[in-house]
Specification:
497 residues, alpha/beta, Immunoglobulin-like, TIM Barrel, 8-stranded parallel barrel, 27 strands, 27% strand
Length: 497
């Protein structure tokens, strides 16, 4: 059996855990909204038509922030289409996804939904067909108390108290030629600057996210980020990153996708820090990784002008969940710079939650590692010293067999080790925890299986799910734990005070 060692020192700190790392995304795309979060005729629908079975699973995931309403959709969206009496709202062509948007759900309803799920909203403004002034009006509608046209209109529409939305995105993927009214870097930088000024004049308390590169594979990356930040550095709080991964036929390369994500994050940090130096600024630019997931983009087939068509509903396997867990660890390990991370998306569309129209809801395989990190990652992210075996990959050369993240909550003594084993062999791990004194192991959760291609279905909703394994008993500062081959592991411990 292969061997590894962990030395976990409580003073080797990366950063406090920002709960916004466990955020997600609802776009007016496919069935994310209609027959996803909203289905007025469903047996579980509440008085507003929101599916309560979906609400319960969102609560189970402990999603912190939900980005809305797009995505590519937002670049052609007029937010005023989604307010006021539903029966008077227009139907529009959604050019981004070649669908028909009914506008039954808009900003007011979405905010109501976030309150029911215990989440917060992160709202994107339209910088495609939209204008800086229209973005300012939206902030006024949402956040200004009363006494103006837009704030009083919100009150007239049934929401006396302001929505108080604190995080806003300045458009979506404006570096992409696929984007409605795509802009070059300098064009976007100037438009976003004027938008940022207006939005913060309306509400100085808000935080703003500038569009960074929509992928590290973009030919304009990282020049786009540099140019944009030269315009916006003193006016925004975050630069965004987007990245999706898929299995292109090499399982090991796919499992090692965390290497690519880490390089992407560090490259954007380096670019932002260059602009910081150029500006002679004292501010450190933080990152919003507000789209990340496993997405088999080669399977995308658009349909013409349907309402809520079935689009991008990938069925995730155990292998997908394992690769996913490595990405989650990477976000934690970069918590000093990545403060917001949105799993794209939340319901139906490349999502951990999958619904049937008029029927059941299930947890996809990726539901579980997201739930584990959102529920158990608390306190401070630590940097363990790990001596791990390596595996040889085609894409990244030698890669550690174990991708891991560790958190420590000093208030209650909780230590959590998240570990992905991408090796085909089990690994015996020797944990050295002497800096914590005596430690008790509370549990060891494992996701693994003989069939890496297994998926959860409506007929077999729990075919792939975590299991609990036996752990050493008693108190010690040193433990040995066996991590199974090709597995996701959550080891929960408690340090005695």
């Amino acid at each position: 059996m292969k061997k590894a060692t962990y030395h976990i020192e409580k003073d080797f700190k990366i950063s406090e855990v920002d709960k916004r790392l466990f955020s997600s995304f609802i776009e007016h795309l496919g069935r994310a909204v209609y027959t996803g979060i909203y289905e007025k005729d469903h047996e579980t629908a509440d008085e507003q038509g929101f599916r309560q079975d979906v609400i319960e699973l969102v609560k189970e995931l402990k999603v912190s922030l939900v980005r809305y309403p797009g995505g590519n959709f937002v670049s052609g969206y007029n937010w005023t289409d989604g307010i006021g009496p539903v029966e008077k709202r227009p139907r529009r062509l959604d050019l981004a996804w070649r669908s028909i948007e009914t506008n039954e759900i808009g900003i007011d309803e979405f905010i109501d939904w976030t309150r029911k799920t215990g989440t917060q909203a992160m709202v994107a403004v339209n910088l495609g067909t939209g204008t800086p002034q229209e973005a300012g009006y939206l902030v006024e509608y949402c956040n200004h108390p009363s006494g103006t046209y837009w704030s009083d209109l919100r009150i007239k529409n049934g929401h006396r108290e302001p929505h108080n939305i604190k995080v806003w995105c300045l458009g979506n993927e404006m570096d992409g030629p696929w984007q409605i009214c795509h802009l070059e870097a300098h064009e976007y930088g100037r438009k976003a600057l004027e938008t940022a000024k207006i939005m913060k004049w309306v509400d100085p308390s808000i935080e703003l996210v500038a569009c960074g590169s929509s992928s590290s594979s973009m030919p304009t990356y990282p020049e786009w980020d540099r140019i944009v930040l030269e315009h916006l550095y003193n006016h925004v709080d975050y630069i965004s990153l987007h990245r999706y991964y898929e299995n292109n036929g090499n399982d090991l390369d796919f499992l090692a996708s965390f290497v690519d994500m880490d390089m992407f994050i560090k490259s954007v940090c380096a670019t932002a820090d260059y602009v910081k130096a150029l500006k002679r600024s004292k501010k450190k630019m933080m990152l919003s990784f507000d789209e990340w997931n496993i997405w088999y983009q080669k399977n995308l087939v658009l349909k013409d002008w349907e309402i809520a068509p079935e689009l991008i509903e990938d069925r995730y396997s155990l292998l997908d969940a394992l690769a996913f867990s490595g990405l989650a660890c990477t976000l934690l390990n970069n918590a000093d710079r990545v403060k917001i991370a949105c799993l794209a998306q939340l319901v139906n569309v490349i999502a951990p939650i999958l619904t049937q129209k008029g029927g059941k809801v299930i947890r996809q395989t990726t539901f579980y590692p997201f739930k584990h990190v959102s529920n158990f990652a608390c306190g401070t992210v630590l940097k363990p010293v790990i001596n791990s075996p390596v595996v040889k990959t085609k894409a990244y050369d030698e890669v550690p067999s174990i991708c891991s993240a560790v958190t420590y909550n000093e208030e209650n003594g909780a230590i959590t080790v998240f570990a992905l084993n991408i090796d085909g062999e089990a690994i015996n791990v020797d944990f050295d925890l002497r800096s914590f004194g005596k430690v008790e192991i509370l549990g060891h959760i494992v996701m693994d299986g003989d069939d890496l291609n297994a998926i959860n279905t409506f007929e077999e909703p729990y075919k792939v799910c975590p299991r609990n394994v036996k752990t050493p008993e008693g108190l010690s500062d040193r433990f040995e734990i066996v991590i199974p081959p090709l597995s996701w592991n959550v080891l929960r411990m408690k340090a005695l005070k």
